[in-house]
Amino acid sequence: MSLSKIWVFVEPSESGVSSTSLELISAASSIAPLVEAFGYGVGPEVSQTLGDHGATKLIAATGLDGVLAGTAVASVMAKRIAGDAPDAIFFAATPEGRDAAARLSAKLDLPVCTNVVNLLQDGADLVSEHAVFGGAVIVSAKFTSAGPGIYVIRAKSFTAEPKGGAAAAFEEVNVGDIGSAGKAKIVQSHVEARSGPKLDEAPVVVSGGRGLGQQESYQMIEELAKLLNGAPGASRAIVDAGWVPYSYQVGQTGKTVKPSVYIACGISGATQHMVGMKGAKNIIAINKDADAPIFTIADLGIVGDVHKILPKLIEAIKSKG
Amino acid sequence: MNIAVCVKQIPDQSVPGRLDPGTHNLVRDGKLILDDSDSYGVEMALQLVDRAGGGEVTLISMAPNSELSGLRTALAMGASKAVLVSDPSLAGSDALTTAKVLAAAIRRNPFDLVMAATESTDGYTGTVPVQIAELLDIPSVSFAKKVEIENGVLKVQRQTESGYDEVECPLPALVSVTAGVVEPRYPSFKGIMAAKSKPVDVLDVAGLGTGPLTSGQEIVSVRDAEERASGTVVIDEGEGYQQVVEFLESLKII
């Protein structure tokens, strides 16, 4: 049996629907004839965009009342799954996507495939490819049990491609009482302001790591990013240390970026970090340790002290005006 | 305040990981250590129990063999006891099977809170904690960066894509914490000595009473990813920045 229907978990963004949601819809529509978006925080205003990318319907969970979105959507999906009978369900590897996939998997006793970076059709089967060991090894897997396969897919694994479809039909589903899972509630949301282009969309990303030595040195990263019309990023080490917010983090637990140029400053290249940036078209690394793994994937590596190199680099770019 | 903390013993990450060519499972024949990501959960649990003025931190772990060295590290930090489900049949378990085993092990002792890392360093599926919460029928708050308990209410700062949410939740509940939430303590000499005699309840799957466990997925193949050709590496002798300028110019970035 080939796949005839795929559900794609969709999430909101400032511009309507998140770019990763659209990537997954495009991927799904290249695999199955029928693709339905299933999400929260979006309404009829995104129907045309979703339709353009291949979704025929948007099912939106409403009345969340502070319940964590992934948990809420999973519960609505579980109620509808028997009637709607999707053959596969795609989630992005975001906090909400992972919550939803995990809840749904345990509710329905279905296995879940995570860290998916590619999907291939092998006859009637869908084979998923997973990057392990920081992307050095690709493992291919498939489900052996019956029931819809649950896939958690990394951002930027697929390209969002508008195909010019009709607007997706819109349907609202009220979440209602979801039992004990719904007892965790958001009482207040905080948005951390950042200026300039978005980290996962910027053509240039300049990231800093532990090699910066101290929080104050991160200013150089921000200045260089601004000069290059790029976004500043960070390794997990300095996010953990509290120097910059989590929204700056590039890597396994942070954002996946694929800019035209990635400049890694004082980052040694832990697998955690490399899996989030090795898809960059060009990589420049500056690090004082000549044996740092980051140099194995850099197009240009400079072995040296970021505190000496970055000020000169910033001055040189400024003087070019 | 009784807290169950899920911890994983993993191969030393300074040694490159490899997969068994026959079974495609991660090779775990060397010494296993406490996953760094889990030390944050252990530390936070110890602090919460301290602040509550009493209770126990129980470690919950699963392994295909009866390796204990990683658990001893967490016991030396101050955890009271451990439950280890150890069974060769668990080698290569998928995320849901892992969650079923851990949930059954957690149920063996009374608990107010379950803690886990957001994801393990070696397997990083990132779904196990919330699967456990669903199996235990309790609320969950993932991606927690700050956790407090006030009057029996769990208060969490939860990371989001754009900032963070303040989330509140009654107990019992599960929290998965990100690295960096607290500074894990180093075990003291006294702690290390005491850890040797702390109780570790070692069970096999039959003793757990979960019924048959089967993974619903199989690995079809394993291959090395295409390697990026490494480029030029130069040693900075004062003019290294010039190379970066020229490279950016060649890409028409500046």
- What's the level 1 CATH class of chain B? Alpha Beta
Shape of chain B: globular
Count, helices of chain A: 8
Biggest sheet: strand arrangement of chain B: 9-8-7-10-6-1-4-5-11
Q: What separation lies between the terminal Cα atoms of chain B? A: 58 Å
CATH topology grouping of chain B: Rossmann fold
User: What's the average pLDDT of chain B?
Assistant: 90
CATH third-tier fold name of the largest domain in chain A: Rossmann fold
Which stretches of chain A of 5+ consecutive residues score pLDDT under 50? none
Furnish the topology, listing elements before pairings.
The complex is a heterodimer of chains A (321) and B (254).
Chain A: E1 5-10, E2 12-13, E3 16-17, H1 19-29, E4 34-40, H2 47-52, E5 57-62, H3 69-84, E6 88-92, H4 95-108, E7 112-122, E8 125-132, E9 137-143, E10 149-153, E11 169-174, E12 185-191, E13 204-208, H5 218-227, E14 231-234, H6 236-240, E15 261-265, H7 271-274, E16 282-287, E17 300-303, H8 306-320
Parallel strand pairs in A: 1-4, 1-6, 4-5, 5-11, 6-10, 7-10, 13-14, 13-15, 15-16, 16-17
Antiparallel strand pairs in A: 2-3, 7-8, 8-9
Helix pairs in contact in A: 3-4, 5-8
Chain B: E1 3-6, E2 9-11, E3 32-34, H1 36-52, E4 57-63, H2 69-77, E5 81-86, H3 95-106, E6 113-117, H4 128-136, E7 140-150, E8 153-159, E9 163-170, E10 173-177, H5 189-195, E11 200-203, H6 205-208, E12 217-224, E13 232-235, H7 240-250
Helix pairs in contact in B: 2-5, 3-4
